[in-house]
Fold each of these.
Amino acid sequence: MRRQETEVQERKASNIDLCIVLRYRKKILTQKVGNHWFYSGLVRLHILHHAVEGPIFGFGIIEELSRHGYRLSPGALYPLLHSMEQMGYLRSTEERSGRWSRRVYRATPLGRETLREAKEKVRELFAELFEKEAEGSASRPQRRSAKA
Ligand SMILES: [Zn+2]
């Protein structure tokens, strides 16, 4: 009898634990993966934008992205640059100065064309994202007077 009770209690406890774990895991996934998942496209476009403007290199891009609030480790950036090169958007060369060398990336014609198309899409999305806000700020004084 006692043994059964403890078994039931243990089962209840493990169910609660599971609930907590699942809830917590969902929160972690949303915070860590979710944001990154949404921003990864923006980071790619940002990199492409700078590669179209001029030659870029890993550390410089990490600094540039951190200026915009994106924290990317070399371990995350280099595979990204590599895959962008594999897909034909960037082309890299090893550039030496004295004892040091670094890999420098430039946009290919495909990269330039892709950025041009993406900018049109970003412009459209931007307009839609901020359309309501523009309307909201126009009607804000009315809302205030209605409250008072
Ligand atoms: Zn930038």
Note: Helices lie at 2-53, 58-67, 74-86, 109-147.
Amino acid sequence: MIRLFGYRSSLSLIVWSLVGVALIVCFFSIVHQSDTRQSRIYFRHPSATRELEEIEEEHFRLPPPHKANPRAVKRRGPHRSPNVIDQYLEESSEIHALFFPDERTAVNPTKVGNDSMYFYPGRVWLDTDGHIIQAHGGGIMYDHITAKYYWYGENKDGPTYQAHPKGTHRVDIIGINCYSSKDLWSWTNEGIVLPGEPTNVTHDLHKSKVLERPKVIYNDRTGQYVMWMHIDDANYTKASLGVAVSSSPTGPFSYLYSFRPHGFQSRDMTIFKDDDGAAYLFYSSRDNTELHVSRLTKDYLNITAAMRRILIRRHREAPAVFKLERTYYMITSGCSGWAPNKALTHAADSIMGPWKTLGNPCVGGNRFFRLTTFLSQSTFVLPLSGLPGTFIFMADRWNPSNLRDSRYVWLPLFVGGLTDEPLNNSFGSPLWSRVSIYWHRKWRLPEDWKKGYV
Ligand SMILES: *[C@@H]1O[C@H](CO)[C@@H](O)[C@H](O)[C@H]1NC(C)=O
Ligand SMILES: *[C@@H]1O[C@H](CO)[C@@H](O)[C@H](O)[C@H]1NC(C)=O
Ligand SMILES: *[C@@H]1O[C@H](CO)[C@@H](O)[C@H](O)[C@H]1NC(C)=O
Ligand SMILES: *[C@@H]1O[C@H](CO)[C@@H](O)[C@H](O)[C@H]1NC(C)=O
Ligand SMILES: *[C@@H]1O[C@H](CO)[C@@H](O)[C@H](O)[C@H]1NC(C)=O
């Protein structure tokens, strides 16, 4: 009995010691993991960006809601009273005026004063000729050959109308505009680099159709600038991708063709060029219920066979993809037409997925702002080469009743802030840094943002 007990106890001693060793190993690996995470979190933070990482609150008093108009209630159904967003979208409302300040406050590079180089999210923004910048749903490419940035976006400088009573608000296709800059603040109009088609009604770019979210990347092998875009008809039933090329960043781009990737619908989309020269396409598919990611061919003119479905049943659109060290990040919006909604950040170790959702990146402002992405929708995230971990978040503040007056919301985005909610699956799977977009009423780029490019 005693011997047997002794045998048993030494056996259990061994078992427990093994468990103990395993726990210690596990503990150290977690400590090690969180150490690398800490070092990831704090590797950057030069004092240059400290000011931009301060939380800035915004206090505005929203006017009291209008009395519900019985017709509107009928239209919206009994369960929805007209909310602040509905009012904000009406051009004549007080709330609207608060977020679409008139041209007197325009950001104006032709007027040199103590405001120069400051970004004012939501204000009218003029180019170096003093004209309003028309580059909606856009993206920016840095061109090493000319050492300039090029901003491509939709020219929406036409009347807004509905093609039929239930149709979405639209502007006829005018074309894709390009602006160039060395400082990201004063932009020179390079003109329409891909024009709409005025007469041929069967052409993809006929003015009655839809041309959105142009993105351009440079192909080092072919020396061509390649533009990808969303091509649709007025009812958004074509749901296709378009491709155009040019030998110059300022065009003209020749339109090649449109197609449905792997036979799937494609609406909001973006492309991302990785450090190794491989480029990828992201698009909202299957009635915007999910995103698909696919690698482009080496010439960037087509997609390869491999495709992954990501964020399935999440209903996300307006993807903007960026990378820091070896982690890929993406900001997306929800799907609520022209109305703003809450952004989410996603991250992945491999660009083809799996992608995990981290949460809402918006910091500061107030709750209303954070739940509406500062009343805007993501379109692009631009890395600042001199400040690793620092990016510009570019978004559109849409004005659906007068789309040409839609505004730009550019804000600093940082990778590396602390997470505000515990991330799921921290055991065994990667611990990603928090992505934060900081609200600022006015802000400018810190010193050294350009290092490494010039
Ligand atoms: C400079 O700033 C002051 C105070 O902020 C302002 O009153 C003044 O009009 C500004 N001057 C110019 C030229 O913008
Ligand atoms: C109109 O556009 C279609 C599609 O791009 C093209 O096939 C056709 O040749 C064009 N017609 C004319 C007259 O240019
Ligand atoms: C769009 O839908 C409306 C209503 O269903 C229809 O009348 C119109 O012909 C459609 N337009 C196009 C371009 O498909
Ligand atoms: C793109 O690739 C697919 C699959 O290889 C092919 O069927 C299609 O013709 C290609 N498109 C173009 C425009 O080359
Ligand atoms: C983490 O998991 C919980 C429960 O499974 C879920 O409610 C929460 O939204 C998740 N958080 C994130 C950031 O995905």
Note: The mean pLDDT is 87.
